[in-house]
Every structure is written in C-alpha cells, then in structure tokens.
C-alpha cells in the first residue's frame, strides 16, 4: 500500500496540477507491481504550454515541500512530461498522448488513490 508520505506528496502535486487547469486527475497505487514507486499521478493538459505549466507547478510545489525531483523527462516537447519524485511519479499528458498510451488501462489492476482537491480553483 502507498505510504502516508506518498499520499501527502500526491495531494500537493494534485492541488498544483489543478491550479494550472489539469484535467482528468487520476492517482494509482502501483506499490505492489513496482517496489520502488508508490503512486502514479496522471493528469491531462489542453496544449503543450498547459502541459509544461502543470509540470512546472507540480515540481515547484513539491520542491517547496522538501521533495527532490529525481528525474524529469519530456519537458522540451511537453507532450508527455514525467516527473519522478521517488515514491510519486507524475505523468502529465497532452490529450492525444493520454489516449494513445492509456496508462489507466495498462495499470487497471492497481487501486485508485483518492485525491482531495480544493473546492474552488483560483483564477489564473
């Protein structure tokens, strides 16, 4: 099962993504099949610029909370950005890539982790 620490990281990352307009936020507990990762956060952006903004905000907020980004991939193209924070890996997709790679289908046997988002999204 995902640890409380990784769930706390998830809530920070999800709130950051939501604040930048991310859509279809889904968190999967991948701790059983992947011993080095607890949670995958999946999020969708409407454009490359939006994907990049979401990824930057997630990274900034997790860094502010004291979590180190171990690996970042895809930032220059901003079609599928992967942010690896150890226990939490955030996948920020452009809509087309999210549909094509269908990670939810690939990891369908993994439990969904609830995400608690703020009731209202601040204006940009």
UniProtKB/TrEMBL annotation:
Keyword annotations for this protein? Cytoplasm, Repressor, Translation regulation
Q: Which GO terms describe its biological process?
A: cytosolic ribosome assembly; negative regulation of ribosome biogenesis; negative regulation of translation
Q: Provide a Gene Ontology MF annotation, just one.
A: ribosomal large subunit binding
- Where mainly found? cytoplasm
Q: Where in the cell is it found?
A: Cytoplasm
Concerning InterPro entries, the annotation shows:
Iojap/RsfS/C7orf30, NT_sf
What's one Pfam family the UniProt record gives for this protein? RsfS
Q: Name one GO cellular component term.
A: cytoplasm
UniProt-listed PANTHER family: IOJAP SUPERFAMILY ORTHOLOG, MITOCHONDRIAL ASSEMBLY OF RIBOSOMAL LARGE SUBUNIT PROTEIN 1
Subunit annotation: Interacts with ribosomal protein uL14 (rplN).
Q: Which family does it belong to?
A: Belongs to the Iojap/RsfS family.
Q: What does this protein do?
A: Functions as a ribosomal silencing factor. Interacts with ribosomal protein uL14 (rplN), blocking formation of intersubunit bridge B8. Prevents association of the 30S and 50S ribosomal subunits and the formation of functional ribosomes, thus repressing translation.
Name under which the protein is recorded: Ribosomal silencing factor RsfS
